Input
Amino acid sequence: MKKTAILLSLLGALIPCHAASEVKAEAAIKLPPEIRGEEIAVLTDPPNVPPPIKRKYPTKVIVKLEVIEKTMRMSDGVDYNFWTFGGCVPGKFIRIRQGDFVEFHLMNHPTSKMPHNIDLHSVTGQGGGAAASFTAPGHSSTFSFRVLNPGLYIYHCAVAPVGMHVANGMYGLIYVEPEGGLKKVDREYYVVQGDFYTKGRNGEQGLQPFDMEKAIDERPDYVVFNGSVGAITGDKSMVANKGETVRVFFGNGGPNLSSSCHVIGEIFDKVYVEGGTKTINENVQTTMVPAGGSAILEFKCEAPGTLILVDHALTRAFNKGAIGTILHGQTGEVTVNGNTYNSVMPALALHDEDVANVMTFVLNSWDNQGGEVKPADVAKVRAATVKK
Output
């Protein structure tokens, strides 16, 4: 039965796309009189977001996005051949305004092995653009559409087998700002969850190929934010100062699992449910985001500390990778080893054992002489420092 399902999925790749009903850019197009001017869309890699749109009128926006198949890190020692929109997973963040006229250019890099297209959930029309954008390696497609509905929308590849293309990382977010925009916040970030299916089990080293049978059974080896384990942790964490307001544009590329989106140590002041503009929940602990869906999350950092973004189906977070951090701590002048810095110092709480482990690692790395630091040694130094 499983072999039959896999065969049918692969045969789907041979089915041609339906004829396009979107207006193609090559045709003579008379723009509505309210469309003023023209601009090139600013696209950003995650977790960054293009700046808010300040203009008060719709314009013609040109979006240029290239599909690139490339090998990148999945986790430490594990690589994966991702299929990407713009060379990153998730794909580039696209920000436009309600009423804009979009001319979309999709390119497929010559080194790609597969044809690709794009289905934008923000598009009303045949396949959300998929039928008009089927693009072979080394070629490009152009189609146009008018943005009718504000909100935060997923886009993804829709070439059969669709699940395989999406499972390889072919998804991203497009945000259509409402005419009045949203209230200004101090920080904006871009995060998308995805589930990945590899031949080897979680953590098995080397280049791991895609496993269609696991995908059909919905048994992911990795569930991650922004395309890899640890993509938004450590020195790649999102940051905010105490007292600042944060907006997270959160999506779920899937292809299969829903997300129980939660921030440990924080409560969402506002959640724009399912990425829409009308239903806004307040004081939310965890919000459900379905595969192919989104939500806009807003909160204020009231106290110093490290906030932890997770899928609250917790084995996904702590065993499969769906975890990220938002650092916020002391601001202003900070003295480190006698030097003064004016920056953000994350409020990290390291126990004696944590410090001992780090020091032991340093002593035994980079041609150092070796040795061991024990928690008792750290405690002794801490006590002496406090007395001074």
